[in-house]
Specification:
The chain has four domains: about 150 residues, 3-Layer(aba) Sandwich (Rossmann fold), CATH 3.40.50; about 70 residues, Helicase, Ruva Protein, domain 3 (Orthogonal Bundle); about 90 residues, Up-down Bundle (Zinc Finger, Delta Prime, domain 3), CATH 1.20.272; about 80 residues, DNA polymerase III clamp loader subunits, C-terminal domain (post-AAA+ oligomerization domain-like). It has 19 helices and seven strands. The strands form two sheets. Strands 2-3-4-1-5 form a five-stranded parallel beta sheet, with helices on both faces. The protein has a two-stranded parallel sheet with strand order 6-7. β2, α4 and β3 form a beta-alpha-beta unit. The longest helix is centred in the first third of the chain and has 18 residues. It is extended, with a radius of gyration of 30 Å. The N and C termini lie far apart (about 95 Å).
C-alpha cells in the first residue's frame, strides 16, 4: 500500500532561514520551558511517544512565542502522520472541508491519520469551527488548534468538549537564557563561533518578555550588527541592534523594589508624570505586567478606597485586560489605570479601619457574638436562645433598627474615620447618620 505524500517537510530549514526558524525544536527533548505539559503519563507525553490511543485533539493555549506551532510539528513527527497546517486568518470553510475530505480518504486508503494544525483558531467563525467536528469525531484528523485567547470563550463548546486544553506558559528568564545559549552552541545557529556577555543576555531576556521567537530575532539582529571579524556580542551591540536602551533594573535585586516603591508612592502622591516615568522604566526593563497590575489593584483600595470606588473596578478590569492582551498592548491599559489612580482623590480610611479592627482582635478584644445574632436555624438553637429577639431591619422604616451588632468588648468602637475627599464625603455623611440611627451619638 502506497503512503500519501506528507505536507510537512521534515528536512532541516535552509541556512538562510531566520534563526528562530532554524532553531525550532525537532524532538520533544529540545522543547524548553513547557515541562508541565510533558509529565509521564500525560496525554501529550503518550501522544509524543507514538501512543495513538492517546491521539485526542488538542487545543494549545498560550502567549506568542511559547512554542505552540513547534509543539504541533513535534507531535506530527512523533506519531509519523501526515501534517497539514492552516491559518485561521486566511483559510475559509472550503479549505477546511478540502483538508477533511483528503484526511477521510487517507484514513480509508492508507489507514493513516492526518495531523491538522490550525493556527489562531479563535479567528475561525462558529461555522468554520463546526466544520471540523466530523473529522474530529470520526478520528480522521488529530486536531491541534493554537490560540492566544482563552478557549473557553473563543472555541465552540462541541469542539472544546472533544479536546484537551494544553496551556503553555510564557518562558521565564532561565528558559529564555537556555534558548539563547542553545542558539549560540547549536550547528543550526552559530556553532560556538559567537559568544555573548551576561548583561547582553539579561537585556535580551527583558526584551523577549517570555517570547522565545522575539529573543532569537533580537539575538540574530545583534550578531548581524557586529563589525566584520567581531564574534562577541556586548550589551551595546544588543541596544544598537534592537534600538531599546538597557534600563538599570534588576528584577531580583534592590532596583526592583526601589522602582516599584517609587511607582506606588508617586501614584499615592498624585504625581501623574512621575508615576508614568516609573511605569515606563518597569515596562522597558521587562517587568511582569501582571505584577504591576496586582500592585495597582492593591493601591486602589489601600490609597483611594471610598474616595472613588470605581478605582478598584478599573484596576481589576486592567488586570483582566493584561491577562487577555499580553504585551505590548497591555502597556496602554496599565498607563490608563496608573493615570486614573494618580488623578483620583485619595483616602486611606479603608486601610486604617481594617488595621484598627485587626489591632483590637490581636489585643484580645473579641467577645462572643450577641445571642440575637447567632444562627437559629439548626435543631436545638431555639432552646439555647440563639436568634431570639433579633429585629429584621427591612421591617423598619429606612431599613435600619437600633440593636447591638458588635460583641460587648468593642460595642461603640469606631474603626472607620471617613475623609471628605471625593465621593467619601457622601459616605462620611451616611456613616454619621447610620451611627446615630444605631444609637451611637458621639465618636470617641
Amino acid at each position: 500500500m502506497t503512503s500519501p505524500p506528507s505536507l510537512f517537510d521534515s528536512s532541516s530549514p535552509r541556512a538562510d532561514a531566520p534563526l528562530a526558524v532554524r532553531m525550532r525544536p525537532r524532538v520533544v527533548t529540545e522543547l524548553i520551558g513547557q515541562e508541565h505539559l510533558l509529565q509521564p503519563g500525560s496525554p501529550l507525553r503518550r501522544l509524543l511517544a507514538g501512543d495513538l490511543t492517546a491521539a485526542v485533539s488538542i487545543i494549545v493555549w498560550g502567549p506568542p512565542g511559547t512554542g505552540k506551532t513547534t509543539l504541533a510539528h513535534v507531535v506530527s513527527q512523533a506519531i509519523g502522520q501526515r501534517f497539514v497546517e492552516l491559518s485561521a486568518v486566511t483559510a475559509g470553510v472550503k479549505q477546511v472541508r478540502e483538508v477533511i475530505d483528503r484526511a477521510r480518504d487517507d484514513a480509508a486508503m492508507y489507514d493513516r491519520r492526518t495531523v491538522l494544525f490550525v493556527d489562531e483558531v479563535h479567528r475561525f467563525s462558529k461555522t468554520q469551527q463546526d466544520a471540523l467536528l466530523p473529522a474530529v469525531e470520526n478520528g480522521w484528523v488529530t486536531l491541534i488548534a493554537a490560540t492566544t485567547e482563552n478557549p473557553s470563550f473563543s472555541v465552540v463548546a462541541p469542539l472544546l468538549s472533544r479536546s484537551i486544553v494544553a496551556t503553555m506558559a510564557s518562558l521565564n528568564d532561565s528558559s529564555i537564557g537556555q534558548v539563547i545559549q542553545q542558539a549560540l552552541a547549536d550547528e543550526r545557529g552559530y556553532s560556538g563561533a559567537v559568544s555573548i556577555d551576561d548583561d547582553a543576555i539579561l537585556h535580551l531576556t527583558r526584551i523577549a518578555q517570555g517570547d522565545a521567537r522575539r529573543a532569537l530575532t533580537a539575538l540574530e539582529a545583534s550578531v548581524a550588527s557586529l563589525p566584520v571579524g567581531e564574534t562577541r556580542v556586548r550589551l551595546a551591540d544588543v541596544e544598537q541592534a534592537v534600538a531599546v536602551a538597557a534600563v538599570r533594573y534588576d528584577r531580583d535585586g534592590d532596583e526592583h523594589y526601589d522602582v516599584i516603591s517609587a511607582f506606588i508612592k508617586s501614584v499615592r502622591g498624585s504625581d501623574v508624570d512621575a508615576s508614568l516615568h516609573y511605569l515606563g522604566r518597569m515596562l522597558q526593563a521587562g517587568e511582569d505586567p501582571r505584577f504591576i497590575a496586582r500592585r495597582l489593584m492593591i493601591l486602589a483600595s489601600e490609597d483611594v478606597g471610598l474616595a472613588d470606588s470605581h478605582a478598584l473596578t478599573l484596576a481589576v478590569s486592567a488586570a483582566q485586560a493584561v491577562a487577555l492582551l499580553g504585551m505590548p498592548e497591555a502597556q496602554l491599559t496599565l498607563a490608563h489605570t496608573t493615570m486614573y489612580l494618580a488623578l483620583a482623590p485619595k483616602s486611606a480610611a479603608v486601610t486604617a479601619a481594617l488595621g484598627a479592627a485587626m489591632a483590637d482582635i490581636d489585643g484580645g478584644r473579641i467577645g462572643r457574638v450577641p445571642e440575637h445574632l447567632r444562627d437559629g436555624h439548626y435543631p436545638g438553637a431555639e432552646k439555647l436562645g440563639h436568634g431570639r429577639g433579633y429585629q429584621y431591619p427591612h421591617d423598619f422604616v429606612g431599613g435600619v433598627v437600633a440593636q447591638q451588632y458588635a460583641p460587648d468588648p468593642i460595642q461603640g468602637r469606631y474603626y472607620y474615620h471617613p475623609t471628605r475627599h471625593g465621593a467619601e464625603a457622601r459616605w462620611a455623611d451616611t456613616y454619621a447618620r447610620l451611627r446615630e440611627a444605631l444609637g451611637f451619638v458621639e465618636q470617641e
